[in-house]
Amino acid sequence: MISRDRSEGASRREFLKMLGGGLLVLLVTRDALAAPALGARLTGADPAAPQIPGDVSAWLHIDASGAVTVFTGKVEFGQGIRTSLAQEVAEELRVPLSAIRLVMGDTMLTPFDMGTFGSRSTPQMGTQLRKVAATARERLVALAAERWHVSPNGLTTADGRVSDPHTHRSLRYGELTAGRTITATVNDDVALTPKAHWTVAGTSAPRVGARDLVTGRHAYTSDMRVPGMHYAKILRAPSIGATLASLDASAAQAIPGVAVTRDGDFVGVTAPSAPAAAKALGALRATWTPASGAAPSSRDISDYLRHTPAQEAGPGHEGGPTEPFERGDATAALTSAPHRLTQSYTVAYIAHVPLEPRAALARFTHEAGGDRLTVWTGTQRPFAVRDQVAQAVGMPNDHVRVIVPDTGSGYGGKHTGEAAVEAARLAQKIGRPVKLVWTREEEFRWAYFRPAGVIDVDAGVDANGIITAWTFDNYNSGPAAIRPPYTIANQRVTFHPSVSPLRQGSYRALAATANHFARESHVSELAHMVDIDPVAFRLKNIDDQRLRDVVQKAADQFGWPGTNHQAGHGVGVACGFEKGGYVATCAEVSVDHGSGEVHVVRAVTAFDCGAIVNPDGLRNQISGALVQGIGGALFEAIEFDHGVIRNAHLAQYRVPRFSDAPAIDVVLVDRPDEPSMGAGEAPIMALAPAVAAAIFEATGIRLRALPMAPAGIKLAAASGAGSR
Amino acid sequence: MLAVAHHRKRRRMRIDIEVNGSRHSVDVDPSQTLLEVLRDELGLTGTKYGCGEGRCGACTVLMGSHAVASCTIPAQSAAGAKIITIEGLEHDGHLHPVQQAFLDEQAFQCAYCTPGMVMASVALLRANPQPSAEEIARGLETNVCRCGTYPRIVAAVRRAAAAGGGEARP
């Protein structure tokens, strides 16, 4: 997490002047501190003019009034970190939550950050900010001790004050800095407050800024306006990879106020009003040359992925080992196993469908030293998008500022800056601010998808129900959580990247969902094969106590397996571990006897992500992940052929709605002594395989393809193999 | 593209429209939707674009006493209508009971759907002041929360119902 761009000093210095005096605490990586030059800068000969080096990963400022401003490159997309990170700072600093303001995701004001993904905000940024805040508190105590000529050890901190219990003196934090600018850097070994003593962190604090969310006052990128702004529309190809053969823009250009920008295959129109921009787009006459070569369709995608290897892993393949893993002798163990089961599982491409589509507002300003560009956009990687935009408009990175307003969701789908680049190019061309909001159809066609994939699993079980052999081959879906959490002596686990006909990338939990679907479905099938209860079978094969605990707690809460199942109902269980989160889900489904429609009636999820920072926020994340998981489990799939997405509308692409939501019961397993880990992703993983097992119990049909029931289940096929 | 050719034959017109109790006279293009007029012409950006085809409910407003998807209403056909948007729910700095209930239940994540959910819930409670959970789910079926906070939204609507939200203005 070290920025390689040191050239932002100037603007940050101006910013520090703006902040005025007070206490500034920087978190600097240990390596950077070791460099003598930086050490000198930080210990600073001139404390009145501190320079923030590029190697800082978080910082915090306390002004003369005691107001605390925290700067982090993370972004808020609905996961609640604007609140939970503030809770952690408030806890260590001993101030009320309301004293803290977070500046997030602004490439000029906040430290470099790789991006908000991978469930890293809580374990990494949360820990870093706690250290920053604890260091600030120590420094304030030291200032008070100096002022009072006492030992810092006897002083206490509470409610934004340092106090001396012996003399009953106390001073507000703002008074202690007395208008001076004081800088401090974080001691990595600073003592953090143990969870047993938390009073702000660990509580269900309501979301910061929530009132603006229910009144519609919060301005998302798509709500922003600046004077003189024009509206943009982009000309899209009729199929993926098509190139522009000809363009007649005369009719569009005849519309008053309209400008048409063409640069290679990129064509955009801008106009002073949204209707004029839409008219101009409609008036463009373009011809296109389709991409050459074979174009697989959603019907034959599994064969295509299995037989079209890529040289290396690509986007969407993050978050796991790309090298094969081997332990023992899986081939020999499979051959000698008393029970053996071989199956294939598939997952479809699915769309994120963030309710706020991609949007950007780009504005150039002329300043001494050259043009500057500011782009507001909802991206999970503001710094990467800044670099992307700078390259597109031919400007130095530090002349471009990307600001991310709290955004209308992403789920891993907004790692990129398409709208930002498009708006910036057009703004540069017409010399005016430009706003671009993608349509829902554009979002479906031109964003990226959760990778499709094929997973082959071959496993052997001994007479006691112990899994003895395991081979797992994942084609294209991705390597996240590819290795089993089960204790298996002989394993061979391999990820095979494929050439993807559709643009693919990150999605909530990455491939962990697909890998858990295949693994857990297979484990349930193995349990059935040797006639052992699926909960008992898992516990036989799991050593990790935390994973055992969530399985047991989910089962207990669910009343597993229960005996009074209604006709057409079934129950299933699945579990897993990823990114520091342990999850187990028990699900009950009903299958309509006539239509074959599947409904998830009830889901119980037990989740352990270490010490819980905000229980209510955590419940919200887990519950939301389960609902979102139902879409991918039962009915979401992108249909395509000849390079065209065939269901690029909400009328054709079904997402979970109110009637799809089950009764949800979340069991939080708090681990006060374990580090706090993220929770945005892992809770989604166990839902699909638990539902698959429940469908099997209800119908006798094994479904091994996600989505499992886009048009209900063909119950007449119950006697068949079940694979679709 | 056919639609554009068609629109060209029609003309811009000035419509009178009452939004949140204020009268506006707006020059609208035949291609413009009520949603676009609210957001782009009147600056009322609390109402969101989500899908453009009435399938997600992010653009829900009250037209008269009914909840409508403002992205599907041609602006010219809204002439003379009385519209309430999310910005029109607060009175004297007090949240509408439905807004307060969403806050109390923390019934959102990214909250992009929230204004539409709130407006649809207000209309639902006016028609049925004490709905069951099933009636709420059915009544809000065209509103999408992609973050999946449906159970909390149902709880919020029930809380608002208990607080007399069905009788509250507007």
Give structural notes.
The complex is a heterodimer of chains A (724) and B (170). In chain A, strands 11-12-9-19-16-17-18 form a 7-stranded mixed beta sheet, with helices on both faces. A 6-stranded mixed beta sheet of chain A has the order 14-22-21-20-15-29, sandwiched between helices. In chain A, 29% of the residues lie in helices and 24% in strands. By secondary structure, chain A is an alpha+beta fold. With 170 residues, chain B is of the alpha+beta class. In chain B, strand 3 (60-63) and strand 4 form a beta hairpin. The longest helix of chain B is centred in the C-terminal third of the chain and has 14 residues, at 114-127. The relative contact order of chain B is 0.16. The interface between A and B is large, with 62 and 63 residues.
In a few lines, what is going on in this structure?
The complex is a heterodimer of chains A (724) and B (170). Chain A is an alpha+beta fold and 724 residues long. Chain A is built from 19 helices and 29 strands.
